[in-house]
Design a protein that fits this description.
The protein contains 20 helices and no strands. With 494 residues, it is an all-alpha fold.
């Protein structure tokens, strides 16, 4: 790293922080902050989606896996693209549900207990993914800035995520996501082109003896069960993750949300493909390096100093953006689906016992983020926006503490555990709420949300190494929902 490297990185980080802070000027209510005022255009929706989807695993992780296993590394971002395509089909139903979170949609169909359970379990999975992003950012900073204290590194990641989303919320995530997407796509596209030039193009890769075809040009190089399981995990995680649902719900119209998701469905696999090409070429030209350094090492070795610094900063921002989007989704769920119902019940009990309302205790869920409601009423403290920001800061601080305590921990271990929880918990109940209203009793939805993560945990223990445990978790949850559908009697009231 030279002065020009640091200058390039400072330029990109300065732009990102500036956009994040300035976006806060457009936030005047909790609805603006969470996206509930529905003002976003196509570019903002696509920016929010891609800004969260393209993280450390999609860039550094994909190049790392391609270096070790070849084309099977592409399944991660291919799964993300498939998930984004499914979001285009879900957009009309999500809009019609008139809700701001996945647990709220589940709760409208299956009751508050189901909403609370979905909120707790799904945000637990999201939290693990935020920790994984913190670990990724800490590893990248300490690898580039030699001798930097890991505690200072995680604090730097925490500060960047805060600038990304705490000021501007969904608006900040969308605007910064647009900038980040352009920088990352350009940087990785240039890297892929240079990488191909180093090895003589596609023909050079195909003919090089360092890349045995049975492994490096096999889409199922790690086994069909593992690679397809990873793809399914990504699809489920994207369809049920609050960060992506929130981006769709922030759109002006259904058509805008579908266009934004369609753009994300194209960009996600493209970014992954660039990473795969870099990983394969580095396997040929640098066969002895740590696989995790495939992409950063290529940038330092082959790009001029100033753009190399900008590209490294863009990689850091991919980690920051994913952590920011997931954290915002968690904060929204906690405020709308957990804290607000508790405050409403406390307010009703207070009114019942004394006839006097507790100040600020009766903020309803509807006031925090749906269709232009700004979270304020005359004579009442306008604390909905402040509460959401406070929860967001608490989530980020807790994730930083967990990452600091698990320095050097397995990033992908956190990520896979996160996917198992997020995907298996809510997929069946959410689809049932959107497409089969009134057909399944709440008890089956509750059982499915427990069976999903339980089956995933058991699968990790019982299934052979070539089978992804998500199959057992997803299968168990869907089996419970299917039993609930078969037992439905239209003449019997639930």
């Amino acid at each position: 790293m030279t002065f020009l490297h640091y200058l390039g990185a400072a330029i990109v980080l300065g732009v990102i922080v500036g956009v994040g802070v300035l976006s806060g000027r457009g936030v005047r209510s909790a609805a603006d902050f969470t996206g509930g005022s529905r003002k976003s255009g196509t570019a903002l929706v696509a920016g929010a989606l891609v800004g969260t989807m393209v993280g450390g695993a999609s860039t550094i992780g994909t190049a790392q896996l391609a270096y070790s296993n070849g084309l099977s590394a592409w399944w991660f971002t291919l799964g993300g693209g498939i998930g984004a395509l499914l979001l285009t089909g879900l957009a009309p139903r999500l809009r019609h549900a008139e809700a701001a979170t996945g647990p709220e949609i589940i709760g409208k169909e299956f009751g508050q207990r189901a909403a609370s359970l979905a909120a707790v379990l799904s945000t637990s999975g999201s939290f693990m993914s935020v920790v994984a992003q913190m670990l990724s950012g800490m590893a990248l900073i300490t690898a580039v800035v030699k001798g930097m204290n890991p505690v200072l590194a995680v604090l730097a990641v925490l500060a960047l995520i805060g600038a990304y989303v705490v000021f501007g919320g969904m608006l900040g995530a969308s605007q910064v996501g647009m900038v980040k997407t352009g920088i990352v796509a350009l940087a990785l596209g240039c890297c892929a082109a240079l990488a191909l030039g180093q090895v003589g193009g596609f023909a050079g890769l195909w003919g090089d003896p360092a890349l045995p075809h049975g492994l490096y040009f096999n889409f199922f190089g790690r086994g069909v069960g593992v690679d397809l399981g990873g793809c399914v995990s990504l699809v489920l995680g994207i369809v049920t993750e609050q960060a992506y649902l929130q981006a769709l719900l922030s759109a002006k119209t259904v058509r805008v949300s579908q266009l934004g998701a369609g753009i994300a469905a194209v960009l996600m696999p493209a970014v992954g493909g660039f990473g795969v090409l870099v990983g394969l070429s580095m396997r040929v030209t640098h066969p002895g390096i740590d696989s995790g350094l495939a992409l950063p090492a290529f940038i330092l070795d082959y790009l001029p100093a100033l753009p190399a610094g900008m590209a490294l900063a863009a990689l850091l921002i991919t980690v920051v953006g994913t952590g920011a989007g997931l954290s915002l989704g968690m904060a929204t769920i906690w405020v709308r689906d957990l804290i607000t119902p508790l405050r409403e019940r406390a307010s009703r009990r207070s009114q019942g016992s004394s006839g006097v309302k507790a100040p600020g205790a009766d903020i309803s869920a509807a006031e925090i983020g749906v269709a232009g409601i700004d979270g304020r009423r005359p004579g009442k403290p306008p604390d909905a926006l402040g509460l959401t920001r406070a929860v967001l800061v608490a989530v980020l601080a807790a994730a930083a503490l967990a990452a600091g305590a698990d320095r050097g921990g397995l990033i992908m271990g956190w990520s896979f555990l996160s996917m198992g929880l997020r995907g298996a918990v809510a997929f069946g109940p959410l689809l049932a709420a959107l497409f089969l209203p009134g057909r399944i009793r709440p008890s089956f939805a509750l059982a499915a949300m427990i069976a999903g993560p339980l089956g995933t945990a058991l699968g990790a223990w019982l299934l052979p190494g070539g089978v992804d445990p998500i199959w057992l978790g997803l299968g168990g949850a869907l089996a419970v929902m299917a039993l609930g559908f078969r037992s439905w009697n239209p003449k019997r009231r639930r």
